[in-house]
């Protein structure tokens, strides 16, 4: 006998949520306007579970209910009702998806770790590790102190999303939890309502859409719209009611015409007419900057048939019935959306010239459109569409792992996820015919990273439809893209200015951070070796015990981490060398106060140090200039010309000062600025630029400023190899008759 069959137990069972309806997930309008309804007992939920779960699993579910009710004893929600109402309501939403019993138990217990003294280990002991992991995945990070609410929110969402990559049921529980919270949001303070609604619209509704769970997504959007922009929703709702009132007859006419056309061709199908939901209309108005009167296709009709080939027959019927709008047909059957959604979409010019959207799909596609990844549990069909959605969801989850590894912190990770959650898509092909779905506005670089991170990192060029293009070229649906790679290539920081996908942005940033860290370690080794040389000590011959002790004291895991810290300017090499060579704290302090000008060891600047050595823009030092350098925490070394005004007095910056000099043969080209005053004459700029190019210098930028009616000042940012190269360029320019004066900027 299952526990809810005992009549004596009814008095112990708490009422929890409203009774089930034919469509359990109600629209936001119905949810906000309906009157209070009678609640039902936990036994009602158990009775519902018996329709698809064996009795022993239902009994285990009821045991979890008693465990959760005891854990939440004495707690209540903002509305005043016992807290246990909420987890049971969450379990009810998941039961309607026919989730397995462990997922339902985790839904009942999803707040016990976060809001009660119950620990994860206790849940694992009473139930099992799988359920405990699900509960922990949904729980927020409440034991860690964060500097801001945004950081705490991002860290908790990161924890949940990473748990989702291990078990997709984590996000299904969280979506059900958020859905019930949104249904009962009216009891919260208005500021909290807006904050929670904004988070729902930015994160949870897009996740539901990404997983193809359309029913949940629509209600989350409607409820978020209701609580975040109530007045905007009210205005659109009134306008829509007026429109619908005037066009009820038109909707009936179109629906009847579609049914008759199907009947005449002996096609069995169902026709369903509906209006688009309010948030969808609002988002279209905002994104396309249109007034409500300009959003004409607010009516949609869905035709559901039995087979895929019938869908295309119906498409021909509706195009014969009403004239299609050019460019508004989309075949999501041949090329499904990123979440597995399949359907034919076409926009027609209906009666009275009103645009109407027709969606044509099979019954299996309709189930997938409503339930998405949840259809795997809801129907247990093993159909190709369900398997496809599961595969696409797995690919997205793998992308989340890539973004997490590349992100510097939880806030950056969440930014990447937000970018990835709004894929207004384009569909492009690899040379072998594989279809890739990318966000609209995606570039060649986004495509390369969508294939694999290594392909993106070593990308140097690309062909679109066999024609060479730049890496920043935006992609259009239907194009075939071929990536050209080179073994020694690496990402360019400038790519961040035009990539749009979260995976590409996270991968580029992650690579550049690692590259900077490696360069910092090389520089740190050079700095520390130079300082140790004054003590007659070699870095490789240091006492391992002393090194390990200092690493522990400095809170560094490895010597490479310590060297990277030195290279980035976060730690002075003189201090570290003194400690590692055997000096004490007093001696280290004296070393800091010593006259660094007497230090015989200077760091040689080669120009190949990478991102950890930068050249000040204020004075643009080049080889041959007398230079000085300062440590900039987090950036490394910033090199100035010795006479630079911004360098200030080195006497006041001894703790940051570093003695540097140019290497014997610096490598690379260095930017510098020159000002050329010329007489006004047509073609003068071309003459000067040509002379600069003759001597092997590249012009990075040029700015012109007319001084008077007779002369113009041209300021060039050019790349040179050193002072000798710059002198040759200036000498050549002085030979041009038009040139009146040449100076280096700043002087």
UniProtKB/TrEMBL annotation:
Occurrences of domain HD (ranges): 83-182
Domain TGS, residue spans: 424-485
Pathway(s) it belongs to: Purine metabolism; ppGpp biosynthesis; ppGpp from GDP: step 1/1
Gene Ontology annotations for the cellular component aspect, listed alphabetically: plasma membrane
Transport among keywords: no
Functional summary from the UniProt entry: In eubacteria ppGpp (guanosine 3'-diphosphate 5'-diphosphate) is a mediator of the stringent response that coordinates a variety of cellular activities in response to changes in nutritional abundance.
Family listed: Belongs to the relA/spoT family.
Name of protein: guanosine-3',5'-bis(diphosphate) 3'-diphosphatase
Protein's organism: Thiocapsa rosea
């Amino acid at each position: 006998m299952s526990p809810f069959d005992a009549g004596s137990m009814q008095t112990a069972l708490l009422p929890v949520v409203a009774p089930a309806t034919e469509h359990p997930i109600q629209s936001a309008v119905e949810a906000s306007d309906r009157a209070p309804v009678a609640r039902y007992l936990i036994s009602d939920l158990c009775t519902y579970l018996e329709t698809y779960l064996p009795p022993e699993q239902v009994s285990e579910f009821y045991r979890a209910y008693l465990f959760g009710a005891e854990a939440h004893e004495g707690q209540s929600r903002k509305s005043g009702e016992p807290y246990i109402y909420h987890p049971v309501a969450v379990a009810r939403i998941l039961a309607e998806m026919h989730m397995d019993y462990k997922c339902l138990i985790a839904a009942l217990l999803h707040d016990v770790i976060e809001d009660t003294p119950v620990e994860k280990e206790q849940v694992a002991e009473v139930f099992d590790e799988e359920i405990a992991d699900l509960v922990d995945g949904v729980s927020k990070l409440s034991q860690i102190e964060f500097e801001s609410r945004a950081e705490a929110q991002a860290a908790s969402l990161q924890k949940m999303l990473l748990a989702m990559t291990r078990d997709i049921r984590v996000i299904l529980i969280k979506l059900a939890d958020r859905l019930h919270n949104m249904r009962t949001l009216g009891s919260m303070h208005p500021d909290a309502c807006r904050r929670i609604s904004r988070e729902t619209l930015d994160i949870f509704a897009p996740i539901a859409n990404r997983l193809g769970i359309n029913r949940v997504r629509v209600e989350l959007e409607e409820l978020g719209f209701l609580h975040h922009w109530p007045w905007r929703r009210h205005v659109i709702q009134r306008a829509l009611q007026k429109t619908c009132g005037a066009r009820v007859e038109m909707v009936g006419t179109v629906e009847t015409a579609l049914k008759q056309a199907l009947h005449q061709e002996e096609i069995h199908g169902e026709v369903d007419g509906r209006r688009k939901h309010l948030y969808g209309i609002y988002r279209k108005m905002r994104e396309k900057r249109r007034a409500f009167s300009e959003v004409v296709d607010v009516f949609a009709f869905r035709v559901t048939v039995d087979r895929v080939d019938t869908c295309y027959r119906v498409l021909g019927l509706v195009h014969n019935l009403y004239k299609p709008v050019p460019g508004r047909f989309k075949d999501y059957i041949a090329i499904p959306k990123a979440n597995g959604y399949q359907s034919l979409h076409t926009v027609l010019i209906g009666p009275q010239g009103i645009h109407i959207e027709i969606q044509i799909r099979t019954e299996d596609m309709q189930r997938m459109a409503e339930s998405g990844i949840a259809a795997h549990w809801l129907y247990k069909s093993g159909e190709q569409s369900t398997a496809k959605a599961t595969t696409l969801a797995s690919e997205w989850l793998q992308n989340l792992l890539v973004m997490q590894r590349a992100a510097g912190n939880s806030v950056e990770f969440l930014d990447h996820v937000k970018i990835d959650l709004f894929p207004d898509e384009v569909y492009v092909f690899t040379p072998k015919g594989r279809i890739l779905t990318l966000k609209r506005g995606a570039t060649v670089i986004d495509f390369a990273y969508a294939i694999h991170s290594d392909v993106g990192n070593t990308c140097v060029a690309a062909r679109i439809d066999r024609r060479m293009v730049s890496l920043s070229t935006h992609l259009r649906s239907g194009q075939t893209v071929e990536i050209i790679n080179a073994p020694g290539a690496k990402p360019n920081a400038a790519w961040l200015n035009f990539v749009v996908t979260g995976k590409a942005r996270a991968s580029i940033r992650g690579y550049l951070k690692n590259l900077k860290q490696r360069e910092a370690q090389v520089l740190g080794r050079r700095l520390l070796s130079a300082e140790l040389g004054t003590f007659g000590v070699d870095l490789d011959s240091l006492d391992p015990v002393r090194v390990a002790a200092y690493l522990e004291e400095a809170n560094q895991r490895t010597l490479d981490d310590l060297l990277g810290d030195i290279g980035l300017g976060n730690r002075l090499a003189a201090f570290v060398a003194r400690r590692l060579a055997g000096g004490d704290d007093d001696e280290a302090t004296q070393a800091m106060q010593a006259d660094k000008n007497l230090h015989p060891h200077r760091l040689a600047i080669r120009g190949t140090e990478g991102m950890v050595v930068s050249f000040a823009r204020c004075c643009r030092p080049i080889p041959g200039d007398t230079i000085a350098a300062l440590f900039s925490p987090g950036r490394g070394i910033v090199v100035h010309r010795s006479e630079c005004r911004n360098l200030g007095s080195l006497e006041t910056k001894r703790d940051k000062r570093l003695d540097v000099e140019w290497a014997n043969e610096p490598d690379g080209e260095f930017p510098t600025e020159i000002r050329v005053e010329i007489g006004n004459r047509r073609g003068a700029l071309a003459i000067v630029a040509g002379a600069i190019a003759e001597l092997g210098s590249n012009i990075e930028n040029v700015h012109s400023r007319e001084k008077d009616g007779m002369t113009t000042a041209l300021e060039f940012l050019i790349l040179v190899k050193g002072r000798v190269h710059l002198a040759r360029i200036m000498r050549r320019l002085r030979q041009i008759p038009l040139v009146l004066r040449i100076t280096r900027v700043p002087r």
